[in-house]
UniProtKB/TrEMBL annotation:
Protein name: Uncharacterized protein
UniProt keywords, alphabetically: Membrane, Transmembrane, Transmembrane helix
GO molecular function, one term: hydrolase activity, acting on carbon-nitrogen (but not peptide) bonds, in linear amides
TM segment ranges: 430-453
Length: 579
């Protein structure tokens, strides 16, 4: 093309179905979101698939021609936003060159099967046929039609501007009038059909519900990308590096803290998340907030030097307390034996001892609440004020328990259409029986199917706030307890139990069920689980990679860091004004 460094604004894949590629669509419609942006006067490269969306392969069989899905064709790359362009402007596009892909320099010609597409000469060509043409310079040849060679003049297909809603309505009206006036046996117009569209709602769901594991649109490779967590991890690392040089603000030791945070950490044999966990808790906190928080970090080893972070300057600087196991020979022997065994049973037993150390250390400073955190989580900016707000809400809701609520389910849309159809002469003229058949037989089933395909969490997301969660309280990444419950219930429970069958989360769940305790959950979540390597070698987590069975809050990654920062600053200003 004579130019180098040309930006590719639309890149396609030969390994992914066209219907699943964000940059492709097969409708002229104003509501399709932009696939990219092009500057005025910029030279760019745009990749396209053939009109079948890549259904035809470079092989010697005509089966793909015979069986081509004609409901999934005419894919376009785009649309692209032209910076500065306004509706009504004249858009001048110069096509500099059209080339085949360097790694796939071929094309095809074919004849449809009469039962699938057909053509004007079905009686002469009763079977599907295909010829693959290979490009060599400007010429092309085919192994299926030997001794033929000609200049391969590639045409660009079709280009155009996305229509406005008014233009689209004109098109649809024009084709509808043509169909209504047709007296011939053959079809004179083929408007878009629901079965052939990569529908806007399906496109919307594919871009909205990819993070819901119960959705057919779930894309784990995209959903598990650490976006907001990556920002917080970097902020946490910077904070920890600074803390290693200069000790930041800590609990003021004047008044009892509002919150004590206990973090138990065990070696992961060369890998540690503790620095990022602790850094994300502290990064962004105002001094007024930090002075009301007491942080306990317990390196849960009989020999704490076995932990990767033992003796780290940032750890001493950031934590208010670094306890060890009590100087009890009998207990230490039990712990050493459990450490040596290292199996799940030993882990479950030792974990309760570790939590008793954390809770006892927190109880010493008499906080209002005690929070326990795993050592492989990331906290969002503003977690502290949201936690305090959630605790107030949980307290209020607990007092309000017992109120009646009523839910209504409205199922009136179809009845409304039919009522209008048969009782309004004006509407009857526009809503023909075929429209009602389409609505009842095509659009409604398709909508119902998409509804269930979208997934439970996508269709019925938890509303922001605090809600009861009396079941499935998995994994204990972050839990908060009133001090009274810690002192009167949890500490005696952890200190005396010899249970070795349930880890702490399950153990607490069983205890809460047996004692009819309330459990409240916060939405959106305040922490994200980022650890990919288990501290006790459970399943695939041993290798340090995310797996399907790992707790992961997909919506956490969609947080807006700027919005959270402004929310946090506003709360701090209000706090400062009240002190």
């Amino acid at each position: 093309m004579g130019k180098t460094g040309i930006r590719t604004v639309g890149k396609v894949s030969f390994d992914t179905p066209a219907s699943e590629q964000k940059v492709l669509h097969n409708r002229w419609h104003p509501d399709i979101p932009f696939a990219g942006t092009i500057k005025d006067g910029e030279t760019v490269k745009i990749e396209c698939l053939d009109w079948t969306g890549g259904q035809i392969g470079n092989n010697d069989s005509a089966d793909d021609i015979r069986n081509v899905d004609l409901t999934q064709i005419h894919y376009l790359t785009g649309p692209f936003e032209i910076e500065g362009a306004q509706p009504g402007d004249l858009l001048l596009v110069e096509i500099m060159d059209v080339q085949p892909f360097e790694d796939q320099p071929w094309g095809f010609t074919g004849i449809f099967h009469p039962d699938n597409g057909g053509g004007f000469l079905d009686e002469i060509y009763p079977s599907a046929a295909k010829a693959i043409w290979d490009f060599e310079g400007i010429y092309c040849t085919s192994r299926h039609i030997p001794h033929v060679k000609f200049a391969g003049l590639i045409h660009p297909g079709i280009l155009g501007c996305a229509p406005s809603a008014e233009v689209l309505a004109t098109w649809n009206q024009r084709e509808g009038d043509l169909i209504a006036a047709n007296k011939l046996e053959r079809k004179v117009a083929l408007p878009p059909e629901p079965t052939s569209a990569r529908t806007l709602i399906a496109f919307y769901l594919s871009e909205t519900c990819y993070h819901d594991p119960s959705s057919v649109f779930w894309r784990p490779e995209k959903a598990r990308q650490l976006s907001y967590s990556a920002i917080r991890k970097e902020q946490a690392r910077i904070f920890a590096d600074e803390a290693a040089k200069r000790e930041p603000t800590k609990w003021d030791r004047v008044t009892a803290p509002q919150l004590c945070i206990g973090i138990g950490s065990v070696s992961r044999h060369g890998l540690s998340y503790l620095r990022e966990t602790l850094g994300s808790i502290l990064e962004g906190l105002d001094d007024l907030e930090r002075r009301n928080i007491y942080i306990v970090v317990f390196l849960a080893h009989s020999n704490q030097s076995q932990h990767e972070d033992s003796g780290a300057a940032w750890l001493r600087s950031m934590a208010d307390s670094l306890p060890a196991y009590p100087d009890d020979r009998e207990m230490l022997e039990v712990i050493e034996r459990l450490e040596e065994n290292g199996d799940y049973v030993s882990h479950a037993r030792k974990q309760k001892i570790d939590y008793s150390v954390l809770l006892a250390e927190c109880a010493k400073v008499n906080p209002n609440y005690v929070m326990t955190l795993e050592d492989d989580v990331i906290a969002l900016d503003g977690w502290f004020h949201r936690t305090l707000s959630a605790l107030r809400t949980a307290g209020r809701k607990t007092r309000e328990m017992g109120k009646d609520h009523c839910n209504l389910l409205v199922l009136g849309e179809l009845a409304l259409i039919i009522t209008f159809r048969w009782h309004s002469l004006v509407i009857r003229r526009y809503i023909s029986p075929i429209y009602i058949i389409l609505i009842c037989g095509v659009f409604t089933p398709m909508t119902i199917g998409l509804f269930f395909a979208a997934g439970r969490s996508c269709m019925f997301p938890k509303q922001p706030g605090v809600s009861l969660m009396q079941k499935y309280g998995c994994c204990g990444q972050g839990l908060v307890f009133p001090l009274q419950q810690v002192v009167e219930d949890l500490l005696p429970l952890y200190s005396t139990t010899t249970d070795s069958h349930a880890a702490v989360d399950t153990f607490l769940e069983d205890y809460a069920n047996a004692n009819n305790e309330l459990r409240w959950a916060v939405t959106p979540v305040l922490i994200q689980h980022v650890g990919g390597k288990s501290s006790h070698g459970v399943g695939d987590q041993l290798h340090g990679h995310f797996t399907d069975d790992m707790p992961f809050e997909y919506n956490f990654e969609m947080n807006d860091p700027v919005q959270l920062m402004h929310e946090h600053l506003a709360w701090v200003e209000e706090l400062a004004g009240n002190t």
